[in-house]
Design a protein that fits this description.
Length: about 140
C-alpha cells in the first residue's frame, strides 16, 4: 500500500525520481515497471504494471457511454521502467496534459500514485477543503 506525499522535481529531461521508500517495493514486486496515464482531475496516475494490467482490463470493458473515459485512460497510457537510480521518464505529452513543469507532488493512493503539479495540487486541495469535500461515503467513518 502506497501512502503519503513527496515533493519532487522533474529534471530538464522530464525525469522524476521515485522516493526510496516506494522504489524498493516497486523494484522487488514489479521490477520497476510502471504505467502512467491521465486522470480526469488533471493529474497523472502512476500504476505498478501488474495493477495497471488489472485496471486496464476493467476499463476496456466499460460501456460505450464511457468511451471518452476509455480514450483518456487507455489512449494516454504509457509503460515506463525505472532506471538504476529510480528515475522514470514522463513523456512530453503527459507532462503537458497534466501541466507538469518542475515541482511536482507524488501522492500514495493505496495501490497506485497520483502525480500533480505542486501549485495545482495546493490549489485543488484548498478548494476541496473549502467546499467540504466530505461525501456520504464517509458517514460511517470515524477519525
Amino acid at each position: 500500500m502506497f501512502q503519503g506525499c513527496s515533493a519532487l522535481t522533474l529534471d530538464a529531461k522530464g525525469r522524476v525520481s521515485i522516493p526510496t521508500r516506494h522504489r524498493d517495493a516497486l523494484v522487488s514486486a514489479e521490477q520497476g515497471r510502471l504505467t502512467l496515464t491521465r486522470h480526469p482531475d488533471g493529474c497523472l496516475l502512476v500504476y505498478p504494471r501488474s495493477v495497471w494490467e488489472e485496471r486496464r482490463d476493467v476499463i476496456a470493458r466499460f460501456p460505450m457511454s464511457a468511451r471518452a473515459l476509455q480514450r483518456l485512460l487507455l489512449g494516454n497510457a504509457l509503460d515506463v521502467d525505472m532506471d538504476a537510480a529510480g528515475h522514470i521518464l514522463v513523456s512530453p505529452e503527459l507532462r503537458q496534459a497534466a501541466g507538469l513543469v518542475r515541482d511536482v507532488m507524488l501522492l500514495g493512493m493505496g495501490n497506485h500514485f497520483e502525480l500533480w503539479d505542486t501549485a495545482e495540487w495546493g490549489r485543488r486541495e484548498a478548494e476541496d477543503l473549502a467546499k467540504g469535500m466530505m461525501s456520504d461515503a464517509l458517514d460511517d467513518f470515524s477519525f
